[in-house]
Specification:
single chain; 216 residues; mainly alpha; globular
Length: 216
């Protein structure tokens, strides 16, 4: 019996290590993408195809705020879902949690909403990205409200949903590469698909985790 429990724990540790390794790799890729725009280059990478909008000061400002703030939100994946950190150092958990909330609600979220209005792919993509930004801020706010009410299970559920949407920065790019490699669709078709696929499936996975880990 003890051997079985030990084996199960080792499998969980191995699975966690693999998950963190994959996450670290994609986070490193996101950092590389972000550094292309430093210091405030407006003719590289994604902005090279948004030249119709970079002359608009509010779009340009929102874009750089979003790019340089959202990368910090992804760091929450290392700390905010760690039970050991939450139990051993709750003060650090709260401080890092507030950092996530402030960046999401006042920087990454609102700026994402603005640039979502000008998303490639037409109305469908614009609705998808604007809805993503709105729900991201809403879920984060709900997590704060539930924490203040001491409803910690509900707080964790809302944070899982919030972070699932934050991960869309990674997953929508992953889906883009997969779709292009497999089906070679037109660029605008890709934008329309990943605009929705990049975050809706994340929410499905989030709900499965919530049901298994929190509500069970």
């Amino acid at each position: 019996m003890m051997l079985g429990l030990s084996t199960l724990k080792n499998k969980r540790k191995y699975s966690l290590l693999v998950l963190l390794s994959v996450y670290t790799y994609f986070l490193w890729l996101m950092i590389r993408i972000t550094l292309q725009y430093f210091p405030a280059h407006d003719d590289v990478a994604f902005l090279s195809i948004k030249q119709d909008y970079v002359g608009m000061w509010h779009y340009k400002l929102a874009f750089f705020i979003h790019v340089f703030s959202a990368i910090f939100v992804l760091l929450a994946g290392y700390t905010q879902f760690s039970e050991s950190l939450r139990k051993k150092n709750p003060k650090m958990h709260r401080r890092l949690g507030w950092f996530y909330v402030i960046v999401t609600l006042f920087f990454a979220g609102p700026s994402g909403l603005i640039i979502g209005i000008y998303a490639n792919g037409g109305t469908s993509s614009q609705i998808a990205f604007c809805l993503l930004a709105f729900l991201w801020m809403l879920f984060t706010l709900m997590a704060v409200i539930q924490a203040m009410r001491r409803q910690m299970s509900s707080h964790r559920a809302w944070m899982i949903r919030s972070f699932a949407l934050a991960l869309s920065a990674i997953t929508l790019r992953a889906w883009k590469y997969i779709l292009v490699a497999l089906f070679h669709p037109k660029p605008m078709d890709v934008y329309q698909i990943v605009a929705w696929l990049g975050w809706t499936l994340n929410l499905v996975v989030a709900e499965i985790i919530i049901i298994k880990k929190i509500r069970s």
